[in-house]
Amino acid sequence: MATTEALPDSPAIRVRGLTKSITTPSHRVDILRGLDFDVPRGQFIAIMGPSGSGKSTLLGLLAGLDNPTAGSILLDGEEIVGLSEDSLALLRGRKLGFVFQSYQLIPTLTAEENVLLPAELSGATGNPERRAKELLDSVGLAERRDHYPVQLSGGEQQRVALARAFMLAPPILMADEPTGNLDSTNGQHVLELLLTMNRQEKTTLVLVTHDTQLAARADRRLILRDGVIVTDELGSTHD
Amino acid sequence: MTSGLSYSTALKIAWRESRSSASRFLFVILAVAIGTGSLTGVRGFSRSFRSMLLKDARTLMAADLSVRVFELPTDPQLAAFQKWESQGLERTWITETVSMLSGANVAVPQLIAVKAINPAQYPFYGAVTTVSGMSLTDTLAGDGVGVSDDLLTRTGLQLGAVVRVGSQDFHIRAVLAQEPDRMSGSINVGPRVMMSRENLEKTGLTQLGSRASQRHLFRIPAVKADAMIQLVRDDLKIAFPDAVIADYRETHPLITRGLNNATTFLSLVSLIALVVGALGVAMAMQSHLQTKLDSIAIIKALGGRSSHILRIYLSQTLVLALAGGAIGLVIGIFVQFLFPILISKFFPVTPVMDFDWFSILEGLGLALLSTLLFTLPTLLGIRQIRPIVILRRDMEGEPPPAGQRWKQWRASAGAGLFILVGMIGMATVLIDASWKDAFKVSAWFVGGLAVALLLLSGLSWVLLRGLRLLLRAPGRKVPAALRHGLANLYRPGNHAEAVLVALGVGVMFTLTVYLLQNSLLGQIAASAPPGMPNVFLINITDRDRLAVKSFLDKGPGVEGDVIVSATASGRIKLIDGRPIEDIAKEGPVKRYLRARSLTWNAELPKQTEVVQGAWWKTWSPDRPEIAVIAETARLLGLKIGSVIDWELAGRRIPMRVVAIYRNEAVGPGSGTEFITSPETLRQVPMLYFGAARVRPTLIAELQKQSFAKFPAITVINLADVLERVQEVIDQVALVVRSISAFSILAGMIILASSVAGSRVRRVREVVILKTLGATRRRIARTFTVEFFLLGAVAGLMGSLLASAFANLLLTRLLDAKFVFSPWPNLFAVVASALIAVVAGWLASFRILGQKPLEILRNE
Fold first, then answer.
1. ipTM, 2 decimals?
2. Between the N and C ends of chain B, which has fewer C-beta atoms within 10 Å?
């Protein structure tokens, strides 16, 4: 597989003419219609918009979880459109971290095993167990590392997911409504952790949210409506 | 750390997932276990039976070497015997024949299996024992005979009774308990009567023309046995080219052939159960993967490749198959115990259980292979799971682009082909024949099974859709329970079609066996319709044949024509100067290497038409002529004017083909392949048999009169033979049905597995229905309707296809007529429905007890 080393002056994400359509037997739905934007390294960008505007689809395409109908996506300077499934998987393991709204932990693995999973999948060397312990410690779950997801509360599960997302110190972190399933106290706790860890690890953060208060803390807000960018504005830095 | 998910992590995930889906996987394991159990049971029994045959070969033959023929030895053959006897070999001669037994207290003469031996020599190995403990020599001394206990049961006679066999009276001295070579014997049509050779001579049963099996048993001095056995055997094979020769180094060839055929057939029947079980595993794995979509998508999103994820589910499949295989081995032991009971009537043996490593590996290997084969398409489907589903569930159903669809189609077709090839491979291993023949049979078997599965699948689709349309028809008032029960069949993850196929295939196979059994018996009974002979006379000598004919013409209850025909046995040596070995090389023509029957006739037989040449009007011993049936002429390439050089009773007679005929008649003698002119067989010893149609109520009277006049002639009542045939067919069908029932059991388990697999959905339904005010009784009714419909539809499909297959097999292969009978089909539908209800409830009875709040709180 041909890989491209990240160019220091290239943006973390570059999107050109990104289009996604779904064709059903009765009609064709255009979810995204020719998006163009760059995300500089280390930026915290919030993608907003009403339901059905194409936010999650955009996130999925940026992460190489799905193929666009047309257009180009460069992650860390590397074109991901047209890569094979396995190449995409390898790229995700190397460059991306994920936090999902519904945590998405593997139910049959303990908290620690879930955190270790990206390291195992990418064949990371060194001492991944130590890193996993540190991360669990930093999200306040050192004592619960042997618990299965079902034995953890929603907030705890999302904190494990955060630790997992940072396990390989990815240059880009994608988060889809990370506080959407949590009550306000837990949501706040998780958000603070996310932002702190993001700051410490110096990652580019792409966050999909409905929450305007959360979006207000982003460096930049991209608002989608009917598959097009209607607003692209810079905001205050989150620190 | 190596790149990718390690096998230990894959196994860890697989193991923990299996634990959390224990109930579903328990059924999967059982489904595999059933097929494996049936297969290892059949094959284990066969192997132990075979090893017993080999271990006790001397005892089962009562000798070191046995030569079986149907003729008395010719001079050169006697010389061959004497040559070896002069070198220290002992020989004893056994004659077995059928005859009639009568007596003052016997109402109707009985058909018996006579065995004449020399008690001073026989048996060389093993022992004949009697119930009272009397020795064989004492039993057969003077006018004594030993009989099997069923003779006393049938006739009501007691020990000491006087009975008449042929023209001689005997005393029943003892009841035979054990006869070492009973299985190696050839005639088992009636109760055994054992007598000494001298007494057999006195009965008059052994005159020239009587049909008897002759066995010559040899004992080779122990020190010379291994060195001499092959020499003796080779020499005797030259002297007796048509004989069945067996020696102690091998299992008896006739029993072995029967055993091999039975093992092959039952192994293939078991393979059906194994396939049904494997289908169940594939179905359960598919349901399981549906519930694991999120986990798979997450691993993919985190950088896991399809091959990593495949490790998890491949390990899971392997562990399930191994567990199923291991339990199957235990079931196999029970099947091995069951077999001796099922066949005890014909083979009173208790083979030692043989559970060697080979059986274990074979069972486990086949369980693994079949499971892997059928799970392969499901496992390959992991590649199609898109990681985007964790963000957008609605993308799950999005059709892939055209290029990918073609790839998927190609992968499915490839997997299908792989399954077919794998199945043919497995079946080939199970068939006891040369690789070439085994492959041919396997290809037919697998092709047939694939067609059956496709038909069942198509039929289940049509029936389910039809049922739905029927119930949805506007203006139709359908009870709610029926409507809901039917709707439940379409519940996501229910796999109604797969369940129908699994259950249907079991019903289809079991019912096909039953329908064949019934039709064949009906056919045999119908083969003696009014006008056709129902009484046959055998062991008629040349001297008696005219007297028998005139007796039959005026006999009690005789209706219509009486037939007394002659046959001789001979071998074709040359055809137009070419040795037969050069002509009969492959296929059906090979049968002409063996002895064939000939008869003579002055006139063209009834319902026979000459298609080439002309029937003789005059004849002479100097001008041997022969007519040949058209099919035989085609096979042997005979034309008018061809010369067939026969060897008949040691003489060479070249006969010129003067006519080729076709015969449209049905009945005794209608299939005769070779008919000679009257003088051609003048010097050849002939066997005669008679046939007549007798009013059934007067058959006993005819038997009595015949016995009085011709005590050496055996009168066979077709009804008695039919009863015996029915017993054999019933016994065989019982064994086959017992094994094929395993596939029904496997289908039942798959239904239970499917029900267990949809447990979460069912629980939700129950809770919602309860919340909306439905009583347990009402919900139970809905579920019962669902299970009943599944079973009834499977039963209906199975019975429809069983009738179609039975029809096909009977008319095309067995040349018999198929008559549709509604009752067995109706029984299959109802029984299958009830089985489904039982299986369904066994897997879901606890669901009804769910408290709504417990579930809703967790939603």
1. 0.72
2. C
